[in-house]
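Structure ticket #2291
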Amino acid sequence: MSVIIPAMNEARTIAAVIAEARGVHPRCEVIVIVNGSADNTAEIAYSMGAKVISFTQPLGHDVGRTVGAEAARGEILLFTDGDLVIPAAELRPFVEAVSGGVDVALNNYSGPVRSRLPHPVVLSKYALNIMLGRPDLQGYSLTAVPHALSRAALTALGSTSLSRPPLAYARAVMEGLKVKAVHKVPVGRMNAVRRKQEGKDPLQEIILRDHLEAVALLLERRGKRAGYGDAGRRREMVR
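Resolution: structure written out below.
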């Protein structure tokens, strides 16, 4: 199996992240995609025995997943991040699920859902799952790590799609891959608070646009009502 870890300026955590990743499976390659780092993240990853792919410039959000997937040799691909020290015991269920026949093993974590005004990203994930006919998946998607893919899923989706997780996720569901939420890792509590730019969260904007692209693909494939009927409405009667 392969563990894919994008990282930028993660010298403080990368050694622990790699150590936990190695504990997931006895035959495990760890691939660290270091991009735009100004610290010694790459050197630490090398010293830990990881395969390191380095870029001097930032690749952009989630592009490291594509790079790592293209370099991976494993039959199971596990994705996590360089700033999240997740114990091996919490990563193992994703690998076990794919080993047992799941194509896309999701983190059973929707994000903050108890707020009076739900977060826009949470709403977009719920809405996409409803439109895909998978309301059982609530706010789960490939947006959140950790998650794992089978080699068959990677072949079906293509590595390039992984740079836009909502789009890859929508394709996985529409193409009939076995998609299942398998284990909860509350990564929202582990993520660092991001700085806003002019009052906006740039990452939120990217994720919302990616969801709109996923909806556009859904409408393209299933029609303008995404495959849903008109509920018996007689629109011709409207004046």
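Closing remark: Residues 18 and 179 are 26 Å apart (CA to CA).
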